[in-house]
Amino acid sequence: MYLAYEGFRVLEAENGEQAIVKTREALPSLILMDASMPRMDGWDAVRALKSDPKTRTIPVLMLTGHAYDEHRAKAAAVGANGFLAKPVLPDDLAREVRRVLQMP
């Protein structure tokens, strides 16, 4: 909701499989991917998106309540462009989105 309030167009997915389908259809500028989701977790969804020529260049920010160094390393290993531990403050989220999108 905060990102929409900040002027970003936001699409939502309920699980990793839906995230892949919606990403392939919409080709967003950025993906915020939760690591823990039903049906297919975010880690596997990012792997799938990064292996698809159509979606591999879309930047991904991983959001997770798992804030250990191994989770940060796993995010990098699956191809994520950034990592945020939840809970994340709305201003911090918007700042990181702008950083990845190279917006002022």
Task: Sum this structure up briefly.
The chain has 104 residues and is of the alpha/beta class. Helices cover 44% and strands 12% of the residues.
Spans where pLDDT lies below 50 across 5 or more residues? none
* Number of alpha- plus pi-helical segments: 5
Looking at CATH, the homologous superfamily is Response regulator
Per DSSP E runs of 2 or more residues, the count of β-strands stands at 3
Lateral arrangement of strands in the main beta sheet: 1-2-3
Gross CATH architecture? 3-Layer(aba) Sandwich
Head-to-tail CA distance between termini: 20 Å
Largest sheet: 3 strands, parallel
- What percentage of amino acids are in beta strands? 5-15%
Helical content class: 40-55%
Average pLDDT reading: 93
Spell out the helices and strands N to C. Answer: HHEHEHEH
